[in-house]
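To: structure desk
From: M.T.
Subject: fold request, one chain
Message: Could you run this one when you get a chance? Sequence is below, nothing fancy, just the single chain.
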Amino acid sequence: MSSSTLRNLISVDIFTDAYRVSGRVVVTGTTTVAGELSNPNSDFLELTDAYISRINQPGEIITSYALASLRKNNINFVVLQNRREGVPMSSQHFRSVFERGRQYHVFVTVPSFEIQGEIMYESRPTPHAVLIQSIGVFQPIFAAKASASLYPEITYSGDVILVHKDRVRLFCLRDDKRS
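Reply: Done. Structure tokens follow.
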């Protein structure tokens, strides 16, 4: 089997306005979850082994299905435990995302959640520039933590959170690690 037909399953937690969907995304070849999310040939993201819970009751699974499909434009963000699975990259892009640039702390709000973490950027950014110039529809935020707005004790963290740019309500950044 060639590398372009190899299939991998990547575990994800996907958040909409009211639900958390945990499951696995099928990616082929060298594609990552970000690549699947940016695929212009489909408006849907396919999942296997999907477990659905409400945001305000994260420990209670309300249903599960072997197969599920989510409309990409309704996804607020995706939590991944390995940043390599979440960033579209060639070997050169991989280097620029993880090794070059300056680290900036960000605070982002989307419906029902606030997200904090880090981005890497090569020049002095503005929030607008980051969202416009970053590749793809989803903004990667590294070493990230998402908190439910109405239930701040409910948190999710990951090595990377991919935030749907169209769902961003507020995007703030600074170049140090003050809270």
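Reply (cont.): The domain at 3-174 is CATH 2.30.30.100 (SH3 type barrels.). Let me know if you need anything else for the meeting.
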